[in-house]
Design a protein that fits this description.
287 residues, 60% helix, mainly alpha, 11 helices, single chain
Length: 287
């Protein structure tokens, strides 16, 4: 029989997490706008474009920040090739998510599926009311009910604390060029995306920025918060064991989206932000 775990986090703890992620999001948006502003002003000064050029740059910086905030979820869905979770094979996904949302007082996110044998999932979106939750078909096929419930509870905790908002905004705002470059490399990529392949040289800088913009404890905290919802740590620990023994690499996952995923979806160490699966399993087994 599993040992009892700590009681659900109080309202004050949740509020602290929400405020922390709101501040983190604002810092990321300000940083993205500042980069555009500085680069734009340099170009304006070198080209001698005058006051009109400065106004255009300021407006562009504001637009970049606004788009990064509002388009985070849609961008993540588009670049991963996710589709709406429809059909009988996704009914269990819908049922478990609805039950967890009712238990934790959350609005049900829009559910999507990525057709991939990898075992993985992620959440994204500007706020809980417009959040998306994405799972791979491999995850749906491989995990049993309590394991899948553990993973879904983990992802829903990201939404509740606005952690998915801060992480998805960071991906769009700080790693946009690399994200576009990865999409541009795919066969049949849009013509507008292909020239962005050259922006792949920014990968080291984008990886560095993402590692500092994303909370390094986000996955460990979400593991703990998730089992507070399910009240069954062995379920999530068993899911993590299957991920460790399987494959979490997602073919259509651009490197820049790595922070969003439940486990590492790519092998590029520059974008690695997840703690080792063995460490996560050990912590859950100790609860």
């Amino acid at each position: 029989m599993a040992e009892p775990i700590s009681p659900p986090a109080g309202r004050t703890e949740l509020q602290h997490a929400v405020h922390r992620n709101e501040r983190r999001t604002l810092v990321v948006l300000a940083a993205a706008a500042a980069v555009v502003l500085v680069l734009g002003l340099v170009i304006v000064l070198l080209a001698g474009l005058g006051v009109i050029g400065i106004v255009v740059v300021v407006v562009l910086a504001a637009v970049v920040a606004w788009l990064a905030d509002r388009s985070a979820g849609r961008v993540a869905i588009a670049v991963t090739g996710a589709r709406l979770a429809e059909g009988r094979d996704t009914q269990r996904l819908h049922n478990l998510t609805e039950g967890l949302c009712i238990a934790d007082g959350l609005s049900k996110p829009t559910l999507y599926v990525v057709d991939d044998d990898a075992l993985n999932a992620f959440t994204a979106g500007a706020n809980p009311k417009h959040a998306v939750l994405v799972v791979t078909t491999g995850l749906l096929r491989t995990l049993n009910r309590v394991e899948l419930e553990g993973v879904l509870a983990h992802e829903l905790s990201h939404i509740k604390t606005l952690d998915s908002m801060s992480a998805s905004v960071a991906v769009v705002a700080l790693a946009g060029p690399v994200l576009l470059a990865d999409v541009g490399r795919r066969p049949g990529a849009p013509l507008l995306a292909r020239p962005a392949v050259v922006l792949g040289v920014l990968a080291p800088l984008a990886g560095w920025a993402l590692r500092r913009a994303v909370d390094p404890r986000r996955e460990l905290d979400a593991d703990t918060a998730g089992v507070r919802i399910t009240r069954y740590p062995p379920g999530l620990a068993s899911a993590l064991t299957k991920l460790r023994d399987g494959d979490t690499r997602v073919a259509r996952a651009p490197r820049a989206t790595a922070p969003l995923w439940f486990a590492e979806p790519v092998e590029d160490p520059r974008f690695g932000v997840h703690p080792p699966l063995d460490e996560r399993i050990r912590i859950l087994e100790a609860l």
